[in-house]
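Journal club prep, shared notes

We agreed each person brings one worked example of a sequence with its structure written out as tokens. Mine is Indole-3-glycerol phosphate synthase. I'm keeping it raw so we can talk through how to read the token line rather than staring at a rendered picture. Sequence first:
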Amino acid sequence: MNADEGVAPAVRSILDAARSRADPDGGHVDVDPQSLNAALSAAGADGRVPVIAEVKPTSPTTKGTREDDPVELAQAMVDGGAAALSVLTEPDHFGGSPEYLERVRDAVDVPVLRKDFILREPQLDAAEADVVLLIVRFVDDLEGLLAAARERGFQVLVEAHTEAEVREAVAAGAEFVGVNNRDLAKLDVDLGTFERVADATADVTEDITLIAESGVSTPGDVRRMRAAGADALLIGSAIMNYEEGEDPAATVRENTERLTTAESRDADDAESTGGDATPEKNL
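Then the structure, token by token:
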């Protein structure tokens, strides 16, 4: 597999950094995770959209870096109804760190996903988390790395961008599959990606928890992804969207609440669908 072929320069830079990063030397971690499935199901039973809210200081597609306390922001996301959290640990392009994740996980009572570019087994041991991310495009032995993650106690979110990658993830034994709406070549976002891929793989994902990733910004976007078959949503930038002078925690809480209650709102909020409401879908 040539993971670098056909990807944007920013993605190649991220991969180069991940390859060159020193492996942790503390031995295998042993994790006792909170159940992601239970957390997502509980959110749905409570009338909330199952949202994994992301603590993301920065990224190659955003401007500036958030310097606010990640623990305070994470707690605000949970207060706003997030079923689970995602915390960046990639340091060079996303401003994250294992320490951020550890502090957040100690402070909240929901599952925490470690968001990073994990390419080889020793990189699993950089931090304890409830869930880790593996990206199909960038992993040479997906089945082997899945097994190594589970041996440590991790649940695994396997990220795909295409129908073929979803099928590969399912064949490797994935229980949670994320479909990323961001194109790796131009870094453009198209919510139609999830719709097309989910429809094309419906024959193999019936028993899979399917998660829509990237580009969800409005309640209308939420309803659109849910109508297309998303069991949950991973949302970062729209939740971390606050301006200088605003109270970061209060704004993050409001942003999270607005998106986790999207299915109970009127059609007036369906900005991304030209004002047309989409059918609700409960987990």
